[in-house]
Design brief:
Rossmann fold, 1000 residues, alpha+beta, 20% strand, 7-stranded mixed β-sheet, Isoleucyl-tRNA Synthetase, domain 2
Length: 1000
RNA sequence: GCUGAAGUGGUGGAAUUGGUAGACACGUUGGACUUAAAAUCCAAUGGACAUUUAGUCCGUGCGGGUUCAAGUCCCGCCUUCAGUACCA
C-alpha cells in the first residue's frame, strides 16, 4: 500500500474538473436573478438541435466563446443571464421514428441527456434552471399562443403596426374596406358597410383571412407522391427526390402562411440600429430585396381586330424599376406559369406555347436559375397596347421571368436591360433606342447615372430621376400605373406535413373555416399515432391519430374521434376536425430568447417585470447559416410582439457574432480493386504521389489506367493484372497517428472486405494516408468527440485549445495533435503555484518585472475579450506564465489576479488554485483585476534602425530624447557607419518611440 | 453572374492608427535526464547563398502604384470558401 498522497500536488485535471462541476451545480453558482441591483447582461447561444450523434468538437466553439464572455461580465459585476436549451422538434427524430417506431419524444429525451452530459463536462456557466425545450408542451403552449395572436391581428399601414382584427371588423361594419390601408392579399374585393353586414359568417371569415398576419393560402410546393411529402429545393436533385430518386411535381396546396411581407420595410430599417456583422446584414438586405419603381398596367388588345381593349381579359400588371424607359418597350414577357397565358394565347400559337410550358415545368427552379446562357421563350400571338403610344406590343413567355417575383410579368426594354436585350436579339425582336448619344448595337445600356432619355415624347431630354418622376405622374394621370415599392421577401409558408412539430391550435368549423381554440385550453398536445408516415389518402401524419377532433361545450372541451364528434349533440357545440399540419422548425426558435427571461412561468410567456428587467440579448453568438432563416423570422416575431405591447423592444439582439465552423481533417487511402478477385490493394499516399504526381481525378481517366496497371504489375511481381476500380476512400481518423501513418491492423478489422487486402508501403516501410480538410461529419469518418479530448486532456485544455485554434469567426481545421501545447501550458501554470511540497505562493513583494508582466497581461486580455479575439489572449497567458516562471515569481499579489484573468477561459483550474490560495467562495464573482498604466512606463526604447526601409540592427535609447538627439546618437553609432560605408545619408526619418529610417 | 469572407513558414495562426514580418503553439532536428520509453527540460527551426566571424539576397496569392517605410493604403487580376436571386 502506498501512503495516502496529499491531493493536488500535481495537476489532476479529471479530479479537479469533476469536483468543481459538482460544486457549481450544487451551489447554483450561475443562477441569474430577475431582481438585482447589478446591471444586467444577457449572453445567448443559438440553441442546438439535439441530434443522435451527440456533440463533436465543432459544436462547443461558440458556447466556449460566449461562456468566456459571460464569466468575464460576472467578474465585472454584471448580473449575467446565460441560458441554454434545445430546439428539440425536428426531422431527424421523426425519420428515426419512421424507421424504428420509437416515439420521437423518447429519442429526443435520450439525445438531450447525452447533450447535457457532454455540455456539463466542458464546464459551461449556464443557468440550467431556465432550460427550455421547444418540444415540451409547457413551452409550445406559448408558441401556439403567439400563433393565435398573429391570427387575431392585421397590419395597418397607416399606423405602421399590427392591430387587433376586432378593430378591423369594426371598421368593416362602419365603413366597409375601401379606405382600409392594410397589408393584405392581392386583389381583395371592395365592399361597403352594408355589404359587410349582409355577408354570412363564412364569407366574413374568408375576407378576414385575407388580412390576418397568419392566413391560409394556396401555395405551390414540391410534392413527391412516392414519399407522400413536400420537399425543399435542397432535397431535389435533377428533378427527382434526393432520397430514393422519386419524381417530384409542382402542386398547389392550402397551407398556413405568415405575412412577414408586412414587416419588410421595418425589418430593413431595423438593421441600422443593431450591431450585427455587415455580411449578415447584407444577406438580410438582399433577402428583403427592396426595389423602388412603378407598377404599370398594359391592356391586352383583341388579337383579331388589333383594337383595344380585348373584352374579358384583364390588363397585365408589371412592376418596373425603370418607368423612365417606358417608350423603349418593344415586347412583354410573362412567366410561363402566369395565369393570363392560357387566356390570351392565340389558336395558332397554342401548340408552341403549351409545349414550352410543359418543357419549363420539368425544369426545377434551381435548374432555371443555374442556366443563364440558354435563351428560351415562346410567342403567345397576343398583343398588349402601349399606354402612351397605343402601339401593339407582342406578348411573349419566357422562363427568365419568375412567377413568384413581382407580378410575374415584365415590360421588356431591350435597349436598357441586358436580359431583355439578349432575348430580343435571339428572337429578332426590334430594339428601339431611347437613349441620347448611346450606341446599343453591341449591348444594352443600363447606367442610370448617365441616362438622358430620347425618342420618348414628353420624357425627351430628361435624366433618369426626372424622367422616372414624370413617367409615374403621366401614368397616374391616365390611370394606368403608379409609383410602387416592391420587396422580394415573400410570405413564409408555416405548415409542415410532419408529425414532430407544434400542433396548430386550430380546428375547422362546419363551414370549413379555421377557428382558434380558446387560449385557456392550451397547450393543444400532440396526439399519439401508430405510424409517423402520411396516411394512405395522402394526409399528414396527424391524420393517423384516432382522436383528433375538437369538441367543446361551454368551458368543457375534449379531443375526440371523428365518430364521437359526429354523434355529439350539435346544440351549443363548438369544434370540428383539428389541423393536420404542424408548425415548422423555426416556430419555436422565433421567440425562445424571451422565454429564458422567465422560463418557468405557467401564466405568461414571460412576466412583464422579467421582460422589463432583461429587455434584450446583449450578445448573441451563432452560426452564419441562420442569416436569412431564423435570424429574419425571429426579428419579425419580435416586432409583432412589440406592436402588441408584449415585449419592450422591437429588436431582440443588440450584438450578434457569427462563429466559424471547425472542420475535420479527413484521412484518405488509395484503393485499387483487381479483376477476378485477385485482391484489393492499398497504396501508401507518399508512394502513390511519387509515382503519379498528377491529381487523382486526372489519373482516373482511361489513358492513365494503363500506367497504373504496369506499375502494379511491377510491384506485385510480373503477373498481368486488370483493374476493376480505383478509388480514394475515407478511413476513420482514429486509425491514423499524427504523422499520418495508418494502423493497418485496425483497417483490416474495420471492414471484412479489407481483411486480406495488400498494402504497398511507402518510405520507412510505413503506410501513409492523405489528409484533406472537410466539414466534420460521420459519413466522412473525421469526427472528433469532445468526450475523448476531455478524458485525455481535460475540459480546460479543450476550452483553451478551441479558442487557440484561431479567430472565432473563421473556418478552421481541427487537429488533435496541437492540444498538447495548451495542455502543457496548464501544467506550467499549475507549477507556478504548487510544487512537490505544496503551495509555493508567498507574500513576497512583487518585483517591477512581475508587475509589468501582470499589467501587460491585464491590458491585452481585457482588450482581447472585448474584441472577441479569444485566440490571442491564450497566447498572452502563455507568454505571462513563461515570463513569471523565468522570473521565479511566487508573489500572491501577482498570482492571485492572474487566476481571475484566466478563470473565464480555464475555470476549473482557476477555481482549484483559488481555493488553495485560501478563498472560500467561487472565483466566478471575484472582481476583474484593474489595469494600471504606471507599471508599463518605460524609460528606454530598443529602436529598430532601418536603412532604406530595411531593418539592420537595433539600438537602445532613452525615450525622452528629442528627434535631433536621436538622429545624432544614431549617426554617431559605429554600426551606422559600417552600414553607410562613407556615404552621406540623404535623409533621416525619426519617429520618436517607434523607428529610425536612414535613406541614402 | 452577384454578394460577403479569406489567401502570411511544413501546420494552426500573430503583427493596435502604414513603422523590427512570422508572436504564441504544433511539427521537425539535436541535446539533457532514463536500462528504455513516457513525461519534463534546454537549443535550433521562413528560403537561398556564405560560414571563422561578420553578413548578403529573396520572402505575406499575382502584376503595377503611392510612401523615407506596405502583410497593412490605391488600381488591375488570380484562387478558395460561404450565401444566393435570370429580382424586372
Amino acid at each position: 500500500m502506498q501512503p495516502e498522497k496529499i491531493p493536488t500536488m500535481h495537476y489532476n485535471f479529471n479530479e479537479i474538473e469533476a469536483k468543481w462541476q459538482k460544486y457549481w451545480a450544487e451551489n447554483q453558482t450561475f443562477k441569474a436573478e430577475n431582481n438585482s441591483e447589478k446591471p444586467k447582461y444577457y449572453v445567448l447561444d443559438m440553441f442546438p438541435y439535439p441530434s443522435g450523434a451527440g456533440l463533436h468538437v465543432g459544436h462547443p466553439l461558440g458556447y466556449i466563446a460566449s461562456d468566456i464572455y459571460a464569466r468575464y461580465k460576472r467578474h465585472q459585476g454584471f448580473n449575467v443571464l446565460h441560458p441554454q436549451g434545445y430546439d428539440s422538434f425536428g426531422l431527424p427524430a421523426e425519420q428515426y421514428a419512421i424507421q424504428t417506431g420509437q416515439h420521437p419524444a423518447i429519442t429526443t429525451a435520450e439525445n438531450i441527456k447525452t447533450y447535457r452530459r457532454q455540455l456539463d463536462q466542458i464546464g459551461f456557466s449556464f443557468d440550467w434552471s431556465r432550460e427550455v425545450r421547444t418540444s415540451d408542451p409547457s413551452y409550445y403552449k406559448w408558441t401556439q399562443w403567439i400563433f393565435i395572436q398573429l391570427f387575431n391581428s392585421w397590419y395597418n399601414n397607416d399606423s405602421d403596426k399590427a392591430e387587433a382584427i376586432s378593430e378591423l371588423e369594426n371598421i368593416f361594419a362602419s365603413e366597409g374596406n375601401k379606405k382600409v390601408n392594410a397589408v393584405c392579399d392581392e386583389n381583395v374585393e371592395y365592399f361597403t358597410a352594408e355589404d359587410w353586414s349582409g355577408f354570412d359568417a363564412k364569407k366574413k371569415q374568408q375576407i378576414l383571412l385575407q388580412y390576418r398576419l397568419t392566413y391560409l393560402a394556396e401555395t405551390e410546393v414540391n410534392w413527391c407522391p412516392a414519399l407522400g411529402t413536400v420537399l425543399a429545393n435542397d432535397e431535389i436533385v435533377n428533378g427527382v427526390s434526393e432520397r430514393g430518386g422519386h419524381p417530384v411535381i409542382r402542386k398547389k396546396m392550402t397551407q398556413w402562411s405568415m405575412r412577414i411581407s408586412a414587416y419588410a420595410e421595418r425589418l430593413l430599417q431595423g438593421l441600422d440600429k443593431i450591431d450585427w456583422t455587415d455580411s449578415l446584414k447584407e444577406s438580410q438586405r438582399n433577402w428583403i430585396g427592396k426595389s423602388v419603381g412603378a407598377s404599370v398596367s398594359f391592356n391586352v388588345i383583341s388579337s383579331e381586330t388589333k383594337q383595344s381593349p380585348s373584352s374579358g381579359v384583364r390588363g397585365i400588371e408589371v412592376f418596373t424599376t425603370r418607368p423612365d424607359t417606358i417608350f423603349g418597350v418593344s415586347f412583354m414577357t410573362l412567366a410561363p406559369e402566369h395565369e393570363l397565358v392560357s387566356q390570351i394565347t392565340t389558336p395558332e400559337q397554342k401548340a408552341e406555347v403549351e409545349a414550352y410550358i410543359e418543357a419549363t415545368a420539368k425544369r426545377s427552379e434551381r435548374d432555371r436559375m443555374a442556366d443563364v446562357k440558354t435563351i428560351t421563350g415562346a410567342f403567345t400571338g397576343a398583343y398588349a397596347e402601349h399606354p402612351f403610344t397605343k402601339a401593339p406590343i407582342p406578348i411573349w413567355i419566357g422562363d427568365y421571368v419568375l412567377a413568384g417575383y413581382g407580378t410575374g410579368a415584365v415590360m421588356s426594354v431591350p435597349c436598357g436591360d441586358q436580359r431583355d436585350y439578349d432575348f430580343a436579339k435571339h428572337f429578332n425582336i426590334p430594339i428601339p433606342n431611347i437613349f441620347e448619344g448611346v450606341d446599343i448595337s453591341e449591348e444594352a445600356f443600363s447606367d442610370k447615372e448617365k441616362t438622358i432619355i430620347a425618342n420618348s415624347d414628353f420624357l425627351n431630354g430628361l435624366n433618369y430621376k426626372k424622367a422616372t418622376k414624370r413617367a409615374i405622374y403621366e401614368l397616374e394621370k391616365i390611370g394606368q400605373g403608379k409609383g410602387k415599392t416592391n420587396y422580394r421577401l415573400r410570405d413564409a409558408v408555416f405548415s409542415r406535413q410532419r408529425y414532430w412539430g407544434e400542433p396548430f391550435p386550430v380546428y375547422y368549423d362546419e363551414n370549413g373555416m379555421p377557428q382558434m381554440i380558446d387560449e385557456k385550453f392550451l397547450p393543444l398536445e400532440l396526439p399519439e399515432v401508430d405510424k409517423y408516415l402520411p396516411t394512405e389518402t395522402g394526409e399528414p401524419p396527424l391524420g393517423n391519430a384516432k382522436k383528433w377532433y375538437w369538441l367543446q361545450y361551454g368551458d368543457k372541451a375534449e379531443i375526440v374521434s371523428k365518430e364521437e364528434f359526429e354523434n355529439s349533440s350539435p346544440s351549443g357545440r363548438l369544434g370540428g376536425a383539428l389541423e393536420l399540419n404542424t408548425m415548422p422548425g423555426w416556430a419555436g426558435s422565433s421567440w425562445y430568447f424571451n422565454r429564458y427571461m422567465d422560463a418557468n412561468n405557467p401564466n405568461e410567456f414571460a412576466s412583464k417585470e422579467a421582460l422589463a428587467y432583461w429587455q434584450d440579448v446583449d450578445l448573441y453568438i451563432g452560426g452564419s447559416e441562420h442569416a436569412t432563416g431564423h435570424l429574419l423570422y425571429s426579428r419579425f416575431w419580435q416586432k409583432f410582439l412589440f406592436d402588441k405591447g408584449l415585449v419592450p423592444v422591437d429588436e431582440y439582439a443588440k450584438k450578434l457574432i457569427n462563429q466559424g465552423m471547425i472542420l475535420g481533417t479527413s484521412a484518405f487511402v488509395y484503393r485499387v480493386q483487381l479483376k477476378n478477385n485477385k485482391g484489393v490493394y492499398f497504396i501508401s499516399s507518399d508512394f502513390f504521389k511519387k509515382v503519379f504526381p498528377h491529381s487523382f481525378e486526372k489519373l482516373k481517366n482511361e489513358e492513365n489506367v494503363g500506367s497504373i496497371n504496369s506499375f502494379l504489375r511491377k510491384e506485385i511481381g510480373g503477373e498481368r493484372v486488370e483493374i476493376v476500380s480505383m478509388s480514394r476512400i475515407h478511413v476513420d481518423v482514429s486509425m491514423v497517428n499524427s504523422s499520418n501513418e495508418l494502423d493497418i491492423q485496425s483497417l483490416r478489422e474495420w471492414l471484412a472486405e479489407f481483411e486480406n487486402a495488400e498494402f504497398l508501403l511507402g518510405e520507412d516501410d510505413n503506410f501513409k494516408v492523405e489528409r484533406d480538410v472537410e466539414k466534420m461529419s460521420k459519413s466522412k469518418y473525421n469526427v472528433v468527440n469532445p468526450d475523448d479530448i476531455v478524458a485525455d486532456y481535460g475540459a480546460d485544455s479543450l476550452r483553451l485549445y478551441e479558442m487557440f485554434l484561431g479567430p472565432l469567426e473563421q473556418y478552421k481545421p481541427w487537429n488533435t495533435a496541437g492540444i498538447t501545447g495548451v495542455h502543457s501550458f496548464l501544467k506550467k501554470l499549475w507549477k507556478l503555484y504548487v510544487d512537490d511540497n505544496g503551495l509555493k505562493v508567498s507574500d513576497a513583494k512583487p518585483s517591477k518585472d512581475n508587475l509589468k508582466t501582470l499589467h501587460q497581461t491585464i491590458k491585452k486580455v481585457q482588450s482581447d475579450i472585448e474584441n472577441f479575439s479569444f485566440n490571442t489572449s491564450v497566447s498572452t497567458f502563455m507568454i505571462a506564465v513563461n515570463e513569471f516562471t523565468k522570473q521565479g515569481c511566487t508573489s500572491k499579489e501577482i498570482l492571485e489576479p492572474l487566476l481571475v484573468l484566466i478563470s473565464p477561459y480555464a475555470p476549473h483550474i482557476a477555481e482549484e488554485l483559488w481555493r488553495l490560495l485560501g478563498h472560500n467562495t467561487s472565483i466566478s464573482t471575484a472582481p476583474f483585476p484593474e489595469f494600471d498604466e504606471t507599471h508599463l512606463v518605460e524609460s528606454t526604447k530598443n529602436y529598430p534602425i532601418s536603412f532604406n526601409g530595411k531593418m539592420r540592427f537595433t539600438m537602445e535609447l532613452p525615450l525622452d530624447l528629442s528627434k535631433d538627439e536621436i538622429e545624432k546618437a544614431v549617426l554617431e553609432y559605429e554600426k551606422t557607419k559600417d552600414q553607410l560605408q562613407g556615404r552621406t545619408p540623404k535623409k533621416v526619418i525619426v519617429v520618436p518611440g517607434k523607428i529610425v529610417n536612414i535613406v541614402g
